[in-house]
Here is the input.
Amino acid sequence: MLLISCPNCGSRDETEFHYGGQAHVPYPENPNELNDREWAEYLFYRDNTKGTFAERWLHSTGCRQWFNMLRDTVTYDIQAVYPMGAPRPSTAVPAAPESGTASLAADSTTTGTTAPSTSATSTAPGITKSGTTAPEGATK
Amino acid sequence: MANTAAFAGINGLREIRRSPASHLAKAMETGSVPGTVALKEGPFQTMAGVRVDPNSEEGARIASVAGGLPARCGEVGGKEGVSVLWLGPSEFLVVAPEEAHDSLGGDLIGSLTAALGDAPGQVVDLSANRTTFELSGPRARAVLEKGCALDLHPRSFTPGTAVSTEVGNIPVALLKSGEESFRLFPRASFADYLGRWLLDAMREFASPEVP
Here is the structure.
């Protein structure tokens, strides 16, 4: 079970979220000029990255807001959580300490126009690492 | 807006309105363990779903009618008799006693709608969308912890806060109403399931403790 740090609500169980696929897939500027192959590639072809992958998530039973996440597809390590529309942060983002409770979460709503600093919304690595040793609190 | 003729309720059907878990009332009574954990379905309430940008002018107007909008997850706004739960950055659930409904002589929905005016946003009467379970007692937290992954310890989930989360795998709004009491707002279609789930979770506390 992943413990995902929602930018609005703080740490929540993976079951509260829905996966939205690869992030940063831009809509074609002139869709009418695309041939069938290019259109099919826009619609259906996605990266199958081994390693750090930028993906979209929806906190469907919480604040119902979308956000982006950098996740390692091998270790499940969540490296950064950042708002929709923000550019992909570099993978070497220093981790912010875990905010812990929902009520103490930073007020970084997705309605804001300015992108919050990635250090405020990134999660602590190690919280969601899968492996033989399940982290405390992620097994429930 | 005091309309005494409207006291009969919506189309005069108030008397035959039944709550979504009314068929479990007896089971909840026998399933409650006095002094340990008790479950009952709360009375009907007036609820309004509000979507508005809280930082805008219309957000300020709605806040003044509802008694303040919560700023972030966990907070509860409102005034005497009215609670405003935070569901999202621009989404709120206003909960008030049943009498506040316009069809019963109140003016909550109407005044919220008037406060929004033509501005972007919405005010929707959701009074029949959710029902209320009241779970209380020293072991109420232990019952909830069987199906809720949030940290419900009083140090992080204090009375007067509310979160939208999952209990027993279904989405609920969970409000901590007192030191040892919780209020759960499941959607009406989940009321039967959640009522039975809570009764099942409470059952162990009716038996003598196994040393």
About this structure: The radius of gyration of chain B is 18 Å. DSSP finds five helices and ten strands in chain B. Confidence is low (pLDDT under 50) at residues 1-7 of chain B.
